[in-house]
Design brief:
It is a multi-pass membrane protein. By secondary structure, this protein is mostly helical. 66% of the residues lie in helices and 0% in strands.
Length: 320
């Protein structure tokens, strides 16, 4: 029996295809194109109100001599930026900020790697230790700063007591001198954020393939050689992620400095965020405070891409 072939129906150009009976018609693109925007509209409105709007206001106010006490001020051009860049107090605040970010992030990267390597092994003790590392995340930075301030209290603080046991002077006021104050601030930041870096790097170590390590061990490589030539190159993407995230977060540090030292003694621990708070909400010079905020944003916009260019070249596993 020969089969009868039906000629295919060709739809002329410019005409729409009529849907066959029983098959629902597809909605046109013009009808569905605006639906995703309707879903995104609430989030976009919140983003506009909470971020874009204040950013535009800060940039606009940085060119005016506005004050909290009232009035929009007058246009002063780059005068606020000139003051921010030439004032010795703000220069010192920028310097302390850069030194703190560089020192704290470097120490946290080293300590985080030192914790991640042994904890990456899947043992019961390591799982318990990894869970304990999440405790600093359960404590808000403000509460952690208040706890550290009480720990170093010269009258009843635990740290002061044990320092006296070790031979230091009695009732040692760590926050009364710049060296002690910076030591407390670094210790607080290390306690708060080293587990964050360690968890990122621990996930990276666990994701590395085991075959290169096994082949290196068969060839007689020791642990240091495996770490240097296999583990660390494989961790470059995770190191880049941890470094960029911690750098951005370190530049935003405010509450721990405000609660523990409030910029003191004197202004020896005044970071740029504290300077912005002091100038804007204590001296009521909103224009200068906004100019400092814009300068801090420019520093981040220049620094973060530079870090990504230096480390990101090796962050792609296909290029290593």
């Amino acid at each position: 029996m020969s089969t009868i072939q039906r000629p295919s129906q060709q739809v002329p150009e410019g005409t729409s295809r009529v849907p066959s009976p029983g098959r629902p018609a597809r909605p046109s693109r013009s009808r569905t194109g605006h639906v995703p925007w309707l879903y995104l509209a609430p989030a976009l409105v919140v983003l506009l109100i909470m971020t874009i709007g204040p950013a535009i206001y800060i940039f606009y106010t940085s060119f005016r001599n506005a004050s909290v006490l009232g009035g929009s001020g007058r246009f002063v051009g780059l005068q606020n930026y000139e003051t921010a860049l030439t004032d010795p107090a703000t220069q010192q605040a920028f310097l302390w900020t850069l030194l703190f970010v560089a020192g704290a992030v470097a120490l946290e990267m080293v300590l985080g790697l030192a914790l991640a390597l042994p904890l990456a092994q899947q043992t019961r003790a390591n799982k318990v230790a990894s869970a304990l590392m999440l405790l600093p995340f359960a404590v808000t930075p403000a509460v952690g700063a208040m706890i550290f301030r009480q720990l170093v209290n010269p009258n009843y603080g635990w740290v002061t007591h044990y320092l006296q046991v070790l031979g230091f002077p009695a009732n040692l006021d760590l926050l009364g001198n710049p060296v002690g104050a910076w030591a407390v601030l670094f210790a607080l930041d290390l306690w708060q954020w080293t587990p964050f870096v360690a968890l990122i790097l621990m996930a990276g170590v666990q994701s590395l393939p085991a075959e290169p390590k096994e082949a290196a061990m068969v060839d007689g490589a020791n642990k240091w050689q495996i770490l240097r030539y296999i583990t660390l190159p494989g961790l470059v993407p995770f190191l880049a992620i941890a470094l960029v995230l911690r750098t951005i977060q370190a530049f935003k540090t405010f509450d721990s400095f405000k609660i523990v030292t409030n910029g003191g003694p004197g202004n020896s621990t005044e970071m740029i965020n504290l300077a912005i708070h002091r100038i804007g909400l204590q001296s009521f010079n909103i224009g200068l405070a906004c100019a400092l905020g814009v300068l801090l944003l420019i520093v981040l916009l220049l620094l973060v891409p530079a870090i990504e260019r230096v480390i990101g070249r090796r962050a792609d596993p296909e290029e290593m």
